[in-house]
Amino acid sequence: MYEENKELICDLLCATLKYTRNLSDLKSIKYDAETETATVTFRNGGVVPISVAADSGTAMIRDIIQGLGY
After folding, report:
1. N or C: which end of the chain has fewer CB within 10 A?
2. Chain-wide mean pLDDT for the chain?
3. CA angle 12, 19, 50 (to 5 degrees)
């Protein structure tokens, strides 16, 4: 079975979203395997924790974007 690298997925998603008009102010998206949470941080200091429990990599991407209101 293929093990997804959710930390890498978050890093790459963040890099991609920084090129969009709506999320160009992203600073980071950090994945915590212990809590199964993606924490989105913005340059202005805003922080949004998003539950990504039991998600596949693609479901995690969808949940992060939905958790940000898009």
Report:
1. N
2. 95
3. 55
Q: Is residue 1 part of a domain?
A: no
Report the b/e string of 25-59 with b at 16+ CB within 10 A.
ebeebbbeeeeeebebeeeeeeeeebebeebebee
The structure's pTM equals: 0.91
Range of the domain at 43: 6-67
Classify residue 17: in a domain, yes or no.
Answer: yes
Please give the tally of structural domains in the chain: 1
Check: CB of residue 12 under 8 Å from CB of residue 30.
no
Joined tokens for residue 49: 């924790």
32 within a domain of the structure (yes/no): yes
